[in-house]
Structure formats: C-alpha cells, structure tokens
From TrEMBL:
Xref: PROSITE patterns: PNPLA
Protein name as catalogued: Patatin family protein
Motif (DGA/G): 159-161
Gene3D superfamilies per UniProt: Cytosolic phospholipase A2 catalytic domain (3.40.1090.10)
Amino acid sequence: MKKGLVLEGGAMRGLFTAGIIDVMMEARIEPDGLIGVSAGAAFGCNYKSRQIGRAIRYNKAFAHDSRFCSWQSLLKSGDLYNAEFGYHVIPTKYDVFDNAAYDANPMEFIAVCTDVETGKAVYKSLPKVTPTTYDWIRASASMPLVSKVVELEGMKVLDGGVADSIPLEYFESIGYEKNLVILTQPDGYVKEHNKLMPLMRIALRKYPKMIEAMDQRHLMYNQQLAYVYQAESTGRALVIRPDEKLPIGHISHNPDEMQRVYDIGRQTGMKYIERIKAFFR
C-alpha cells in the first residue's frame, strides 16, 4: 500500500506545513511519495533532500533582502520572488540544497503547475535534480499577477494551485492509497471568488483558459475540500489543519511572524506525530 503526503500551497502559510514535515523527518517517517502545490512544493522538496529546518532558515535569513522578495524585484524582473536569486543563488550558494541526498532518496516527488494555455494541471515528477528541477518548483509557486509566466519543456506554466489546489484525488489515481493531507486553512474555511479577477483578466488576457480557471478556482477548491472530508471520513486520508487562521499573509518580511507560524506547525506536528506513525504503519 503506497503511502503519500499531499501538501497544499498558501504562500507564507506554507511555513505551517514546513514545521509539521520537519517534525516528521525528525521522527524518520518516510512516505513513498510527496505531491506539493506552490509553497507545498517549494518547502516540500526539502523532505526529499532530508533538510530539516531549511525552509524556515532561508526565509528568515532573507526576509529583508530585496534580492529575494520585493517590489523592486517585481519591477525589475517581473517576479516578486526573484527567480534567479531565490531558485538558483540561494540553493547553490547561501543555503545549499542537498542535490545528492535528494537524488538518493527513492521517495517520489511531484510538483503541480498550471498550464496557462489550457488552464489544466501539470503534474511534473522530479525524481532527480536536473537543470530544470528548481524552475519547475519555482513555476509551481509562481503566483499570477506577481510572477512572469514560466516557459519549460515547451509549456507555459504558473501556480499549480489554480488548477489543482489539493491534489489528493490525483495522487489516489496514481496508486497512493493512504495519504496524509496537510492543509493551511482551518476547518470550516470556504474559499470565495477572487476579488482581483478584473486585474487577472488584464494581466492574463493572452490566456483565456487560464482566466477561466482563475474565475472558477473557488468552486474547484471547495469541491476539493469536500473530497478531502470524504476521504478523511472513510479513513483513506489523515488530514492536518491549523486550529485557526494562521497569523501571516501571503507575503511576509517579518522573521518573527514567520517563526510563529513555523512553530505552530511544529506544535501541531508533535500533537499528531503518533497518529501519523500509526496511520502509515
């Protein structure tokens, strides 16, 4: 029975997830596969490289660095989170990503992106580090309006959360029968229609299918929540959610705020760790 880990996105709310998965790594819990969306992919890749604490460490270290995340970067490069600095300089120079450990770990790792020309999800398996691995992870986390469209392997892609925010159903479809799902919104959350759709229509005017997907995203997300509840009720999934709305926005330049959210994740991970062990046994 294949055991999977499903990580939704949520930008800086993903530090809650980072705290949980660090606790899981410390407990030597080894899923057969991990599928991550947006921040779930950007932080979840550290599970495959077995780098406990890396996500919170570099986010805090570069919280005030304009090369990492800034309006200056957006104006100069078209990306709020600078693509070159964040996804090529930091992991190769400042907080080195362990490519060898990633390659040696047999755990399957899939990053979810959205094809802007079709509005459909792209599920990119990344078994080894290649010249495009970091860019696929970047694409998964490239939020519309504040990111350029990423061109990879003949596709144009952006944030995976637009097409498949909580890819539990997909993971089950490829053979993962028992899944731990980590959400970044509390129980009872209902996604509303995106208030920025007028701006989205302008920014994405070349991609009508992407606009359509953005316009329908709240419906897709709420349907996926219902699917998660159903999987949880039948015992196919163990679901971890924050107890209340996390005290952080999509973007943060406050290391203390980041640490608080990460610590909430760690506390939640410790609370659930025995249940996780029993579920994956």
